[in-house]
Amino acid sequence: MDKKAGVIDKEAPVQTVRDTQELLRAPAGAPLVPLPLEVVVPEARQQTPAVRQRATRPDARMHGLGQTKYIDDFYLPGMLYARVKRAGIASARILSIDTKDAEAMPGVVAVLTGRDVPCNSFGPSLKDQPVLASERVFHAGDGVAAVAAVTEQIANEALEKIKVEYEPIRPVLDPLESLHLETPGIHAPNPNIYGHKVIKKGDVEKGFAQSYRIFEASYRTQMVEHVPLEPHSTVATWDANGRVTIYSSLGRITLGRSDIARTLAVPMSRIRIVATVVGGNFGGKNEIRTEPVVALLAKKTGRPVKYTFTRPEEFTSSTTRHPLVMDYKTGVSKEGRILARQIRLVLDGGAYCSWSETTLAKALILSAGPYNIENLAAEAFVVYTNKTMTGAMRGFGAPQVCFAYESQMDDIAKALDIDPLQIRLLNVLREGSLSPTGQTLQSVVVRETLLQAAQRFGWNGAGKGTRA
Amino acid sequence: MKRRGRGIACMWYPIGFTASANPSAAVVKVNEDGTATLLTGTVETGQGSLTILAQIVAQELGIATDDVHVVSADTDTTPIDTGAIASRTTYVTGNAARLAAAEAKQILFQVAAPVMGVEPDHLEVSDHKIQVKGFPQRSMHIGDVAERARGVKGQLPIGSASFNPATVPLDPETGQGKPFATYVYATQIAEVDVDDETGEVDVLRVVASHDCGTPINPMLVEGQVEGGISMGVGFALEEEMLFDANGRLVNPNLTNYIMPTSLDMPKVEVDIVDSYDPTGPFGAKGVGEPTCVATAAAILNAIHDAVGVRITSLPATAEKVHAAMKAARAQEPRSLTAG
Question: How much is the mean pLDDT over chain A?
Answer without folding.
Answer: 92
